[in-house]
Amino acid sequence: MWIKICANTNLDDALLAIELGADALGFVFAPSKRQVTATEVARITTHLPQAVERVGVFATQNAEEIANIALEAGLTTVQLHGGVNHELAAELAEWDERFKGRLTLIQTLHWHVDADIGCVATVSRQLAEIASAGVVDRVLIDSKVGQATGGTGRTFDWEGAKAVLTKGADRLKLIVAGGLRPENVAEAIHDLNPWGVDVASGVEAHPGRKDPEKLAAFINNARQAKGV
Asked: Is 142 among the catalytic positions?
């Protein structure tokens, strides 16, 4: 079970997440209450073990801007959060030499909480397109509420999504996000059997600062649910 703790803003939270067993740390460069700069993240990543994945969340569609921030911040992974753009993903993938083969990609898809039924067909089609393009092999499914595209604390319809994600998992590594908390992460894993889970607001004391007890409980519950 791959576990990503997202929306980190300080070194103490990052180190605690690693100590508790997180596989990846996320840093939000998209507009958000938890938004950080490349300079701020670089001060954190220089102190992290090499084995820990450092994920930058981006809403921009400018590949050069993403690449420059990723290099300065010391990222190993780019999470594309501004809609599906196969050309952008392909351009970043072609810059493998610039990143010495270490940059990987995650594509975010949004499940509209206020339109769950329509999302079945939309997300199913998007997963098929991403798999066919063959550029990205990891896809994060996040809740979308109104204009907010992350950190909403709202879950999407897991029952309705089950068939879609089960089919998509045949060709892609699927990551579930959106409203996950220590109290429901095991249920999400049992219902959807994702490759990974991602949490931000569900383990916070307040935006930008993690709650140590929630963080520990989330990681422990996710590991126990998957048996890994």
From this structure: yes
